[in-house]
Amino acid sequence: MDRCPVVERSVQEKLRKTCPVIVLASQSPNRRKVLENAGIQVITRPQDIWEICGETEPEKVVTSLSSQKMESYLRSPEFNPDLPAVAIDTLVCLDGKLMGKPKDDEDARSMLRSFSGKWHEVYSGMSVYVPKTGRTEVVCDVTRVLFHKLSESDINWYVSTGDPKGAAGAYKIQENGFRLIDAIDGSFSNIIGIPLERLIGILSECN
User: Fold this and answer.
1) Cα–Cα distance, 85 to 31 (Å, whole number)
2) What whole-number distance in Å separates Cα of residue 43 and Cα of residue 96?
3) Strand, coil or helix: what is 52?
4) Is 89 one of the annotated active-site residues of the chain?
5) Distance between CA atoms of 171 and 169, rounded to whole angstroms?
6) Single pTM value for the model
7) Cα distance between residue 145 and residue 180, in whole Å
8) In terms of Cα–Cα distance, which of 15, 154, 3, 21 is closest to 80?
9) Which listed residue, of 86, 90, 131, 200, carries a Cα 20 to 30 Å from 193's Cα?
């Protein structure tokens, strides 16, 4: 890609009108930034869970973990029943193998080599608490990503940027990661870790 994709202004405006304030049951600075860039007031309520679910299918893993985070928030003394809340878990999947965050630089290099010239999937499980109904809606969004052929110098350069640290799949498309990518099929914001279009859909249907 020649330039980094952006969240469409129309999506940001629709989200801002639908949900001017939201609780984010996560400590992810990337997710917070995506929401704040849309003009939303974000109240961060990180949840400390084990992140173990016993599932193996990507969709079930991410929805189970997002549900655990939301359930933890709903049981906490910080729960505000009058505000919408969202909890999300994101994983990358290549040829059926789940990939989380790299343990170190060499692990990041290994992940990036495996993506070279291939399509992979980014799964985000999202649990949304809707004040009007008092219910939690759980969905999964999937975006496909195609990497171009990476040389060792490409990989070493990218690891040197520091982007892989703390990033599922060892890359951040919203930083320097877009330079490694040929194409995406699906929601760009989902790759960052929060599928805004699905969030808008859930909150709009329940209002």
Assistant:
1) 13
2) 35
3) coil
4) yes
5) 6
6) 0.89
7) 10
8) 21
9) 131
Which contacts of 169-172 are long-range, i.e. CB under 8 A and separated by 24 or more positions?
Answer: 169/92, 169/99, 169/111, 169/115, 169/120, 169/122, 170/99, 170/101, 170/102, 170/107, 170/108, 170/111, 170/112, 171/112, 171/115, 172/30
The b-or-e profile of 133-171 (16+ CB within 10 A means b, else e) is eeebbbbbbbbebebeebeeebbeebbeeebbeebbbbb
Strands 41-44 and 21-24, by their bridges, are parallel
Domain range summary for the chain, segments of one domain joined by +: 9-205
CA distance 33 to 176: 16
Which residue of the set 2, 89, 107, 141 is catalytic? 89
Q: What dotted CATH number matches 9-205?
A: 3.90.950.10
Percent of the chain's residues with pLDDT above 70: 96
pLDDT for 93 equals 94
pLDDT of residue 54: 58
The sign of the torsion formed by the CA atoms of 70, 25, 49, 193 equals positive
Residue whose C-alpha is closest to residue 41's, from 83, 70, 6: 83
Measure the CA–CA gap between 30 and 193, rounded to whole angstroms.
7
Residue with token string 């110098």? 153
Q: Are 24 and 186 in contact (CB under 8 A)?
A: no
